[in-house]
Structures are given as C-alpha cells and as structure tokens.
Amino acid sequence: MAGPGNYLADVTEGITRVEDLPPPKIIRRSRNYKRRRCPCCGRSAYRLRSVRRTLHDLGDSLVARPRDLVVTYSQHRCPDCNCYFNADMEDLALPKNHYTHRVVATAVRLVVEDGLPYRSASWHLWRDHRVFVPWATIQNWVEATGEKAAANITGEYLDQALSPGYRFGETGRFTPPGWSLCFAE
Ligand SMILES: [Zn+2]
C-alpha cells in the first residue's frame, strides 16, 4: 500500500512504443477570418486559404495526458501590395514555434529559476506537465532570453546533466531514465 513519501515511478517509465503513451487531448482553436488588414499597407485582404497548425500546450495534469491545440487559421494575400500573411495568433505562440507561450515560459523558469539542467527540465516537463520538449529546444529558448538568464546556469548543472542515468539519442534528444522512446519533432 502506497503511503506518503513512498516513491512511485512515472507510469510512462519503461514504455518503448509511442502508441502506448497517453494520447493527447485535442483542443480546437480558430484564427480563421474572411478578411484581415494587411500588415504591409493596411488595406483589407481576403483569405487565400485556411490551414492548420498544432501547438503543444501544457498537459492536463489531472488525467496525465498531453494537450494539443489544433489551430485553424487563415492565410491572406493583399491585392494591393501582394503581401502574403497569416491571421495573427501570437497570443498563443510565436511564429514557427510548436509550443504555446505557457510551455516556453515554464521551461525557461525550470532552468533559470530552479537551476535544472536542460535534460532534467525536459524530463520534468514530460513527467509533470505531459509535454515533450527536446532538451536542445529548451536550450534555444533559454539562450534567447538573454545573457542574464544564461549567466545563472553554471557548469555545475551541466556536469549534473551528464551524470549516469541520462541517455541521449544521436540527435541529442533526451530520453529519461528507464524510458527508451525518442520523439521526432
Ligand atoms: Zn498590402
């Protein structure tokens, strides 16, 4: 019988097949408009097409499942200046990023405030928030926050990150102890 203080491994430890992982909960969002103001010249531009983008969000911790936002958004072409642009969705995520602002902010805090090595931060995000972020991606985010944040991360953490128990795929992707999966981005 498990009591307070008993160690329980994460249920996904030891899983080797992607299909055995808990499936993501899909949340649909729309940024799909018939017309949008052209960011280049300010004229109104009709929708050219609608497309979709998947953003990984912090997971649902109650049911321990990942959470993906599937955003349908419009792409527009300005008839006046021929500018191509997407409907704005920077409230959700930065352009070309596969993760929501919440995931980025949580990841950066784990490293900058809590001093976790990138690999540990990656594992923490999966274990406690059910979002898989390759450690190299976290490193990019932290470095993008500037020198001040990067200065808080000392060699000590890097040594810890390289300690036994952590394994790395050929592409530098993180696989936590007891977990043999390697995710494609
Ligand atoms: Zn225009």
Protein topology:
Layout: E1 25-31, E2 35-37, E3 44-60, E4 65-77, E5 84-86, H1 101-112, H2 118-129, H3 135-144, H4 147-151, H5 155-161, E6 167-168, E7 174-175
Parallel strand pairs: 1-4
Antiparallel strand pairs: 2-3, 3-4, 4-5, 6-7
Strand content: 25-35%
- What gyration radius follows from the Cα positions, in whole Å? 20 Å
Helices and strands, in N-to-C order?
Answer: EEEEEHHHHHEE
Uncertain runs with pLDDT below 50, 5 residues or more?
A: 154-174, 176-185
Structural class: alpha+beta
On the 0 to 100 scale, the average pLDDT is: 82
So what's the overall shape? Answer: elongated
Helicity, in percent? 10-25%
**Total DSSP helices:** 5
Q: Which ligands occur here?
A: zinc ion
How many distinct domains? 2
Number of DSSP strands?
Answer: 7
Head-to-tail CA distance between termini? 39 Å
Instruction: Please describe the biggest sheet, giving its number of strands, its sense, and whether it closes into a barrel.
Output: 5 strands, mixed
Structure, explained:
- The relative contact order is 0.15.
- Helix 1 crosses helix 2 and helix 2 crosses helix 3.
- It is elongated and about 65 Å long.
- It folds into two domains: 20-98, no CATH class; 101-178, no CATH class.
- Mean pLDDT is 82; it is low at 154-174 and 176-185.
- It has five helices and seven strands; from the N terminus they run E-E-E-E-E-H-H-H-H-H-E-E.
- The strands form two sheets. Strands 1, 2, 3, 4 and 5 form a five-stranded mixed sheet that branches. A two-stranded antiparallel sheet has the order 6-7.
- Helices cover 25% and strands 25% of the residues.
- By secondary structure, it is an alpha+beta fold.
- The chain has helices at 101-112, 118-129, 135-144, 147-151, 155-161; strands spanning 25-31, 35-37, 44-60, 65-77, 84-86, 167-168, 174-175.
- It binds zinc ion.
- Zinc ion binds next to loops.
